[in-house]
Amino acid sequence: MKVFIIGTGLIGGSMALDMKSIYDDATIFGIDADEKHLYEALHLGIIDEKSTESDLINADLVIVSVPVDVALVILPNILNAIGEQTLVFDVGSTKSPICDVISTHPKRRNFMACHPIAGTEFSGPKAAIKGLFEGKTNIICEVEKTTFKLQEKGMDLFKKLGMRIRYMDPKSHDKHIAYVSHLSHISSFMLGKTVIEKEKDEQDIFDMAGSGFESTVRLAKSSPAMWTPIFKQNKKQVVKSLEEYILNLTHFKELLENDKYEEVFNEMQNTNRIKEILNR
Fold first, then answer.
1. N or C: which end of the chain has fewer CB within 10 A?
2. SS (H, E, C) 45-60
3. Distance from CA of residue 251 to its chain's centroid?
């Protein structure tokens, strides 16, 4: 099996590492605009060879794991370059734009729009880890537009990676992911910004920050180069989620200002049921 990973960072690299264990006959080819990333991926054993888009005609599987703005540009060219039996799937955090850009492409049937909900705050080939996808959800959009034989190829891989599958239309995906992922990253970035601006002494931040702060601000370590295009592509839904979040913050602030501590307690008590949801 000839597998081409376009973008050899966390998601693409982790998938490559798992596929080496899953498929004895897999040869992993890496394509990356960053030559340093290709060197690291080779050195770490994530990929077997460097490659270029001109070799995609030989691919059995192509995994597009690049920032979402780059994916919009390169995906039509990738589909132009592949063979008739090649499956291409992306792993981006926005789905409507990518589905729209190739909606009328002659090889639309070779493409599967995917979003593995599996990541960390780290990026680059060094962030790749085995077993990243075990027990994680993979959202697939417009699966009916992928030819059935290639659907089977993709599902076989996702099953062997240990992933759960959810089907969703692109607009619903982008709406829901704005709340449970995109908003979380913005909150983390802005909490980090608030603390850095207020606490000028870095040693004070280091000494006084407990595990609560560390876990809440963890996502602020994420790559701005990856997340800025995500916010841009999903602007409408992200702004809506921010408006609702700001309303809740403002309401909580007003409760404190007016010494309504019973209502403060109730706000937190009512939200505590998130534990039951996340521990299912």
1. C
2. CCCCEECCHHHHHHCC
3. 31
